[in-house]
Amino acid sequence: MPLWLILIIIGVVLLILGLSGIAEILLWIGVAILVVSLVLALMNRAKS
Questions:
Q1: pLDDT per residue over 4-18, tens digit each?
Q2: Is residue 8 part of a domain?
Q3: Radius of gyration for the chain, computed over Cα atoms and rounded to the nearest angstrom
């Protein structure tokens, strides 16, 4: 599995956990991971 796909999956899980009220910090970590993974995916597409 590509790294960006793993990061997207982890980001979505953390985002869902953060929205469910487990911890507010998980929400921001999830958003940060999603943004980083989307940037990496766009950079990989631009190279190919």
A1: 788 888 877 777 776
A2: no
A3: 12
